[in-house]
Amino acid sequence: MSENQPQRPAAPTIVKSEQQWKEELSAKEYDVLRRSGTERPFSGEYWDTMTTGVYSCRACGHELFTSNEKFSSNCGWPSFFAPLAEDRVRYIKDGTLGMERVEVRCAACDSHLGHVFAGEGYPTPTDQRYCINSVSLSLKTTE
């Protein structure tokens, strides 16, 4: 996340109707990916895994993060200190729930992934925590 975040949202390259998304995603996936929901902490598939691989958007398959950037933040959701590349995600100001946060979305299909936080003192190269919902991700292992 560059210092000028949040950036102007780019148009997604994968566009489907809400009906198409509902048909392709489970109810839980649809709630998080398309309605910006959040899964309960410590309940998702990837919150504590350190399996080697590439994490992709569950909605469209766009590669987003790798296990090289994943770290244990003990927050209950998968945490990464950076995306695979800056053009893989986009950022939007999020003022919901009485907080000022930065939402992270898939650059390809505009699906909600989670939020990014900075300045929390994590011992990572970026001092950022991409707090991502497990249900937003699919892991392709490379082990």
TrEMBL record:
<dbReference type="InterPro" id="IPR002579">
    <property type="entry name" value="Met_Sox_Rdtase_MsrB_dom"/>
</dbReference>
<feature type="domain" description="MsrB">
    <location>
        <begin position="18"/>
        <end position="142"/>
    </location>
</feature>
<dbReference type="GO" id="GO:0046872">
    <property type="term" value="F:metal ion binding"/>
</dbReference>
<dbReference type="GO" id="GO:0033743">
    <property type="term" value="F:peptide-methionine (R)-S-oxide reductase activity"/>
</dbReference>
<dbReference type="InterPro" id="IPR028427">
    <property type="entry name" value="Met_Sox_Rdtase_MsrB"/>
</dbReference>
<keyword id="KW-0560">Oxidoreductase</keyword>
<keyword id="KW-0862">Zinc</keyword>
<dbReference type="GO" id="GO:0005737">
    <property type="term" value="C:cytoplasm"/>
</dbReference>
<dbReference type="GO" id="GO:0006979">
    <property type="term" value="P:response to oxidative stress"/>
</dbReference>
<protein>
    <recommendedName>
        <fullName>peptide-methionine (R)-S-oxide reductase</fullName>
        <ecNumber>1.8.4.12</ecNumber>
    </recommendedName>
</protein>
<keyword id="KW-0479">Metal-binding</keyword>
<dbReference type="Pfam" id="PF01641">
    <property type="entry name" value="SelR"/>
</dbReference>
<dbReference type="InterPro" id="IPR011057">
    <property type="entry name" value="Mss4-like_sf"/>
</dbReference>
<dbReference type="GO" id="GO:0030091">
    <property type="term" value="P:protein repair"/>
</dbReference>
